[in-house]
Amino acid sequence: MSVPQRLRSSSKAPLRVSIVGQMGMPGVAELAGRIERSLRTRGHEPVSRLVSGPDWHGGGFLPPGAAAPDLVIVLGGDGTILRTARWMGYGQVPVMGVNLGHLGFLADFSRDEVDDVLDEVAAGRYRLVDHLMFECEVRRGGKVVRAELGLNEASIHAGPPFSMIDIHLHVDGDLATTYRCDGLIVATPVGSTAYSLSAGGPLVRKDLAAFVLTPLNPHTLTTRTVVDSAERRYEISVPRPNEGSACVVDGRVIAPLLPGDSVHVRRAEPRFSLLETRHHGYYRTLREKLHWAGGFRGAGPRSSAPPPEGTP
User: Fold this and answer.
1) pLDDT digits (tens, 9 = 90+) for 265-289
2) Which of 65, 90, 100, 262 is least surrounded, with the fewest CB atoms within 10 Å of its CB?
3) Check: CATH 3.10.580.10 for 3-132+270-289?
4) What pLDDT does residue 309 have?
5) CATH class for domain 134-267?
6) Secondary structure E strands in 71-225
């Protein structure tokens, strides 16, 4: 049975679990030790892998000769999960995210829920939700000068000297439009709650197969976000980029943009898989993280008592 399939099956065999976190981040080492002990008492095979900044970008996710894990428990925030997804590359393993950061759309579980979640996993009360990933290529002179696997979004930024740029968008080889704007975001559904949302893009359910295209500060007010199929191929070109124009994937600059360059975004073969339990779901995450309380935060419950006499 292949590694990811073990967690997808009803097998009760012990799981190989990698515990990943940022070395030196407050609380990570202590929590990793506690989770490792808890997993061992349940008969599983945990290994803690606390890494420094450069380790995220060097070498493969698996040490030479090591067996692939069945589950990766990521300690940190959404940024740590994005780095881990990039680190795993084309050998994606299901992830359980434990939030030690701030918002935590992907790192959905709190540190106090870890033992309960492990009990849910042992009882088979969990689901694996697959998320779209993409490949982004920067081509120059007909050659690929940089290629990156991403989870959240690929974006084009005008950059210094901070004047608007023209961005041509082709979909499956046909010209869709020319944006005059400060940049363009091509986001996955899981990325729709990140940079794209801040730029005014819509929320798209994270297990859908779609791309969200959101221009940054477009000159034409009728230019709006477009949601299109993940089966299509997107080509972006900037005929006259600024000196600081660049292509960015999941918050990292992957290449500066020169005249004649083109950026290609398409669906990737691997899928990022996130573990959820019956107590955590899509709308609960949105409700709690975006504070969908049906009113203003801190306003308190609305009183049903009549106003005092004489109140206008």
Assistant:
1) 999 999 999 999 877 777 777 787 7
2) 65
3) no
4) 47
5) mainly beta
6) 71-76, 95-99, 126-131, 134-140, 143-150, 153-157, 165-171, 174-181, 183-187, 210-216
Give the three-state DSSP class for 209: coil
Q: List, in order, residues 6 or more apart from 267 with CB less than 8 Å away.
A: 132, 133, 134, 135, 209, 230, 231
Q: Which of 211, 160, 212, 205 lies closest to 182 in space, CA to CA?
A: 160
- CB burial class (10 A; 0-12, 13-18, 19+) of residue 8? middle
- Residue 6 is predicted with a pLDDT of 57
Tokens of 1: 């049975």
d(CA 223, CA 225): 7
Cα torsion 73, 266, 170, 256: sign: positive
The whole-angstrom separation of Cα 290 and Cα 115 is 26
Question: Which residue reads 């008592």 in tokens?
Answer: 305
Evaluate if residue 1 carries a pLDDT over 50: no
Q: Which two tokens stand for residue 277?
A: 């339990």
Cα–Cα distance measured from residue 97 to residue 109, given in angstroms and rounded to the nearest whole number = 6
Kindly state the average pLDDT of the residues 201-210. 93
Q: List the helix and strand counts (H, then E) for the chain.
A: 6, 18
Going by C-alpha positions, the residue among 180, 210, 217, 176 that lies closest to residue 192 is 210
Active-site amino acid positions: 78
CA–CA distance, 66 with 5 (Å, rounded to integer) = 18
* Tokens coding 52: 């420094």
Burial class (CB in 10 A: 0-12, 13-18, 19+), 68: middle
Domain boundaries, the chain: 3-132+270-289, 134-267
